[in-house]
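Pipeline run #58 for the internal structure catalog. This entry was flagged by the ingest filter as a single-chain record with no existing model, so it goes straight to prediction. Upstream metadata was stripped on purpose; only the residue string is passed forward. Reviewer on rotation: M.T. Logging verbosity set to normal.
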Amino acid sequence: MTKMTFASHPFLLGFEQLDRLVERTAKTGNDGYPPYNIEQSSADSYRITLAVAGFSEDDMTITVEDRQLSIRGRQPEEDDQRVFLHRGIAARQFQRNFVLADGVEVTGATMENGLLHVDLRKSVPESVVQTVKIKRG
């Protein structure tokens, strides 16, 4: 039996890549840490904000590969001389992934008060009308 997906509908020609994107998004492995917000700041711009208390700019990397935005955080090894009576601030490494649509690019990132802001902009493609000449067979 073959797997039926929405992209296998006969009117959706060439949307197989969208199926693969949906599968990849489902496999991102995000476990809920760190918490984040996604906001639309204008018609063509977005901001992802991650709560990264305890991390510095040097502890994090932001990469975009094959339309997947990856934000990773890893703190340096801790000083063994510290003794915690209570430890409620998470200091574990993380990786948060987001799949970007065609035309969406990262325009910058800033740290402010324990929040990492990643700004995105979507370029609006030009509308192209193509006329196809019909030939006699």
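catalog note: Residues 38 and 48 are 5 Å apart (CA to CA).
catalog note: The chain has a mean pLDDT of 85.
status: ready for reviewer M.T.
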